[in-house]
């Protein structure tokens, strides 16, 4: 069964135009061609990326954060309560009014105390500012270096300036050493992102990020196996050209450098729109969808590759909508740019904060700042933590 599946999967009629196949990618005359077996190096390299990231965040990003005044967020923590914790984890983080009333009967808390408990419990799950800064620093460093390396590898290549050149001689396109490392490093990085997605800052577009990472990994892997190398390098360079700007804007945002954040974000928005909504669909996608059929009859690999391209473009449109909305808000009111993909920190109202500073509310000597005190003799009141 496995042998049959392998034979079907690697059938060259699926992945190549008629008359071409895997034999055309066999090394000869001193020329080297990409092979599927080359991708085995991605897993150890992805694990190495995860290790390097941990070292980078501790030894580089954290000191930079300290210099810029970025500190770990200190949040008020809730008093452990089994009933509320069970409801929070198993039912919902946002209880309805009827659920709040029911929880009041179970715990002896007032409605305001239950609502405050849930607010603070939600805040506890949100990543703190330092974690966000370190993550943005790591991605900024990689994207900037990757863009510089990609530009260096492609600056003298004719297909950078004439996109139709990406198919000249396909599939007999020999592999350059720079292309090999560019591919392996990019693919390993995205694999590392996918492995660490559960521990990274979780935003509202979490599902879209997963789809993006999977589509990118499939696109890079597939383009490598069937020697769409020139198209692949152009796609990677195009994406890296704006990503480092976004991450740098995030870093300045977390550091409180409002003007720098806003101006870099506007620059990022312009680059993103030009590269993802103009060059990508009307330049690269035109040369992967329209141009090839003038040379070869469409085949499964053609549809598969362009299906992934369309998936990425749909994500580009979705993110462009969010970016433009944030940019318009900033330009119209000169307010601070906020990432709409992130949940906002929830705060207690001023009256409650005043109660916190004064040691908590007291009503009939029974309920103190969110829970029933266990000891009335020492003159101190327990607080929500």
UniProtKB/TrEMBL annotation:
Ranges annotated as DNA-binding: 86-129
Recorded catalytic activity of this chain's protein: sphinganine + octadecanoyl-CoA = N-(octadecanoyl)-sphinganine + CoA + H(+)
Domain of life: Eukaryota
Predominant location: endoplasmic reticulum
Listed InterPro entries: HD, Homeodomain-like_sf, Lag1/Lac1-like, TLC-dom
Classification via Pfam families: Homeodomain, TRAM_LAG1_CLN8
UniProt region (Disordered), positions on chain: 337-385
Keyword Kinase set for record: no
Pathway field: Lipid metabolism; sphingolipid metabolism; Sphingolipid metabolism
Any single GO CC term annotated in Swiss-Prot or TrEMBL for this entry: nucleus
Domain TLC: 131-332
GO-annotated biological processes: cellular response to ceramide; ceramide biosynthetic process
Composition bias type Acidic residues, residue spans: 345-356
Molecular function via GO: DNA binding; sphingosine N-acyltransferase activity
Protein name: Ceramide synthase 2
Lineage per the UniProt record: Eukaryota, Metazoa, Chordata, Craniata, Vertebrata
């Amino acid at each position: 069964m496995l042998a049959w599946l392998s034979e079907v999967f690697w059938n060259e009629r699926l992945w190549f135009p008629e008359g071409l196949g895997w034999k055309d990618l066999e090394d000869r005359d001193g020329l080297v061609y990409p092979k599927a077996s080359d991708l085995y190096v991605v897993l150890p390299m992805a694990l190495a990326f995860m290790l390097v990231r941990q070292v980078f965040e501790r030894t580089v990003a954290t000191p930079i954060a300290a210099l810029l005044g970025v500190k770990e967020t200190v949040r008020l923590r809730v008093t452990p309560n089994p009933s509320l914790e069970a409801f929070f984890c198993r039912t919902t983080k946002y209880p309805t009014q009827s659920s709040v009333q029911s929880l009041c009967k179970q715990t002896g808390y007032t409605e305001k105390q239950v609502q405050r408990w849930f607010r603070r419990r939600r805040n506890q799950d949100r990543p703190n500012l330092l974690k966000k800064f370190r993550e943005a620093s790591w991605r900024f460093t990689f994207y900037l270096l990757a863009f510089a390396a990609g530009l260096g590898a492609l600056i003298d290549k004719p297909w950078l300036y004439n996109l139709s050149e990406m198919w000249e001689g396909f599939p007999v396109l020999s592999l350059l050493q720079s292309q090999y490392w560019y591919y392996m490093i990019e693919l390993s990085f995205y694999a590392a992102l996918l492995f660490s997605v559960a521990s990274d800052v979780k935003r509202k577009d979490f599902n879209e990020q997963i789809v993006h990472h999977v589509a990118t990994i499939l696109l890079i892997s597939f383009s490598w196996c069937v020697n769409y190398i020139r198209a692949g390098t152009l796609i990677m360079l195009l994406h890296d050209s704006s990503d480092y700007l976004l991450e740098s804007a995030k870093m300045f945002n977390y550091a409180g450098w409002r003007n720098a954040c806003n101006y870099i974000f506007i620059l990022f928005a312009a680059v993103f729109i030009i590269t993802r909504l103009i060059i990508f669909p009307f330049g690269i996608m035109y040369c992967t969808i329209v141009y090839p059929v003038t040379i070869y009859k469409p085949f499964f690999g053609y549809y598969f590759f362009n299906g992934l391209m369309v998936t990425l473009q749909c994500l580009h449109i979705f993110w462009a909508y969010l970016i433009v909305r944030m940019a318009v808000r900033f330009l119209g009111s000169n307010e601070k740019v906020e990432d709409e993909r992130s949940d906002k920190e929830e705060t207690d109202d001023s009256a409650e904060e005043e109660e916190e500073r004064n040691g908590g509310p007291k009503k009939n000597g029974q309920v103190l700042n969110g829970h029933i005190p266990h000891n009335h003799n020492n003159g101190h009141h327990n607080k929500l933590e």
